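Re: the request from the purification team.
They wanted to know what the chain is likely to look like in 3D before they choose a buffer screen. I agreed to run a prediction and write the result into the notebook, where they can find it.
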Amino acid sequence: MIQVCRDDSPKVLESDKAMVRENILGFIVQVPPLLRAQLGESIKTIIHSDYPEQWPSLLHWVTHNLELQNQIFGALYVLRVLARKYEFKSEEERIPLYHIVEETFPRLLSIFSKLVQIVNAPIEVADLIKLICKIFWSSIYLEIPKQLFDPNIFNSWMVLFINLLERPVPVEGQPIDPEMRKSWGWWKVKKWTIHILNRLYTRFGDLKLQKPESKAFAQMFQKTYAGKILACHMQLLNAIRTGDYLPDRVINLVLQYLTNSVTKNSMYQMMQPQIDILLFEIIFPLMCFNDNDQKLWDEDPHEYVRKGYDIIEDLYSPRTAAMDFVSELVRKRGKNNLQKFIHFIVDIFRRYDEVPADLKPYRQKDGALLAIGTLCDKLKQTDPYKSELERMLVQHVFPEFSSRVGHLRAKAAWVAGQYAHINFSDPNNFRQAMHCIVSGMRDPDLPVRVDSVFALRSFVEACKDLDEIRPILPQLLDEFFKLMNEVENEDLVFTLETIVDKFGEEMAPYALGLCQNLAAAFWRCMASSEADDEADDSGALAAVGCLRAISTILESISSLPHLFIQIEPTLLPIMRRMLTSDGQDVYEEVLEIVSYMTFFSPTISLDMWSLWPLMMEALNDWAIDFFENILVPLDNYISRGTDHFLACKDPDYQQSLWNALQSIMMDEHMEDSDIEPAPKLIEVLFQNCKGNVDQWLEHYLRITIERLRRTEKPYLKCLLVQVIANALYYNPVLTLETLNKLGVAGDIFNHWFAMLQVVKKSGARVNFKREHDKKVCCLGLTSLIGLPADKIPAEALDRIFKATLELLVAYKDQVAENKKQNEEAEDDMDGFDADEEDDEEVDSDKDMGLDDEDGDEVSSLQLQKLAAEARGFQPADDDDDSDDDFSDDEELQSPIDEVDPFIFFVETVQGLQASDPARFQNLMQTLDFRYQALASGIAQHAEERKVEIEKEKLEKANAQ
């Protein structure tokens, strides 16, 4: 049955494939449900691979079997798989779906209608209706097929969906067990019906979202169906008031519909007469602590914590949907609803305070606190509430830190964290909150400890005086690590990052302990993630968080090199293991750690050198997407461990570098953007190993020139030309001889000078945009000026001299402009108070402000800064038409930093004048007035730079 090809990869014969396709469908109705699920996966794989090209008869099989009473289930089952193939496809790729709809939907509608009309239908009917709902869902998910735009046809479908929505779920046959009950067939039908109607409403029934050609449909949907659906949903939610059963997912979906309706005037008007009932008898009870919460709190606190911080759970949570509804209601309709909702909450606080402990409505107080935390952004911006927030915290939140009820202690911590950034008029209240939170980290209940940590992060961020935290820092960190041993959660680690970031170098005494604890937590998270591939990815996310936190610590102690020696043994096992294919999911984070360790350590140890082969092996095998990240530590190895790099032959680092760069640069299938780190590394080699890698110069020039011939992206062209400039600065005679030997010298210089001349309408240069680019070109061209006459003809010398003068002037102007911009930016920052709050009142119909807390962005910026410091490069400019030159050169470090291009140019010209006066005189005579003026200006600037450099050296010496 299996034909083995010469390459040993097994292939299934086409005749065997056909035989499988002809027979597999008949088994759908014959096998039990457990096997059917596995069979369905096989059919799905074949359909995704073979339909419609290799399996054109499949649709005919479906339409034929839809007509057979005993085969309808199998036909619907296959049709569901078929429709799902196109659920997320683009317009062009969905064309086969429209043919499927045209062939099957008339019959599907007929079957659907008959099934819905069956009185006291058995559960098997629910399974068939559910399949039809899923087929419809997949078919309309992105676009409505044109057949359904016919009002009569669409109405026929909608009548049936609304019928299902209105009709009560049969009581008879419902399972007693809650988990089985929510998965019962008729509840599944209800859920999928609501799912479909919500999708139609939000994607196709909103006039604001529609293309012009779809507006008529949107208007029709709004006018004919949206209100009916809303009325059904409101009726359905009454089950919450009467204590009847309603699955969480159904509640969530219904509330999503209501939330989307708040912004539409006609829909809100329908809702308004019942808004008080909705708010106080349905929404608020959903926000309160309930029996299921208590059961989970008592029996599985870890799961309680996980669910509370899992965004996937939010998709199914009635409580989250209730919070979203309240937020949207007060945001868009706050004028009528905010005041009465706050009065309702205040009344709960009052009644709670007035009754004795055994009668206190603890669960209602929990819901009220959740409401206050949910409305935080709105209340902080709205009079008269914003002036009362501190008093509210002191009076109604802080006391619950010592509540005898665990969930109220947790909620108090969470609410306090929400309001950490308000301006406390009494510093003692801020201090009280901090002490309450630290106490919460020692609470006997795990959820309280976790919520306290998150509150701590907010207070650390808000803290203007670190003396508030400094005395309790050791104790705080101790409690923190105890908690990390109990819970795998990336947000816990992010909280630690915040603390380290805030304290900076003050964390130095704790750096080793922090890294040891984080390393241990990382291994636990990895073990947890590997042990259960089917589990959620919280363990993997927490592992990433551990590595990011380690990077934050390393950055905070960057000025204390001796600490890196102490930390290295703790981190080496992580780096060694995760620089292999085992670490693909955390590779970027591990490379960041390697970058810090190789840059800030006093020296690069032999243990750290042992990581080089791992990175090169990965780069050659699977890690090309991480080339820009790998570049950073490789640069550090070459620039900070130059002697070892040059001397060691086992392993041969020079050879391994060549093998990798040659393979990448010569790969015709490699995109220009993937190549960019390669010429940057060649620059690192030439600049750091000047005079020591002559044997490699021709090799690298060959692959550079070869790649330059077929490069299209301007930025890569600049980088490749800069390799030649660096080679000229490295050894101008050898480089020129090599270019002549390869027969490309004339072409290369013509191409280079042409690139230098290209400017935009603004006058800005298109190529060599950064200060660094211009400086490298200046050094390379200047190196040619000092060569004897037999190496550089007079005509070529004249051309090089003029081009260098123009480039030096452009470099000088850019340096001055960037310096001016930096000074202005510093002045702006001096007058900017990041902690000031905007007291301006925000109208209730305006959007609420959102805090941007993108940790990945911060981490990425830190790595870019390190990369710049370590290698002298900024990230590639993806917008080749941008007018913005790179302007962060003052942060860059490279071996050419100590070389002033103006002084180098003037001294080179002076050397030419001394060694060959006649040639120098001829050169000067060829210059017109403009170039003579430029040369005079550069000479004067070189003298100024000498004075400035001496002054800088003196200031540096005095500062030490």
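For the purification team: Residues 318-354 form the longest helix (37 residues).
Please add any questions underneath this entry.
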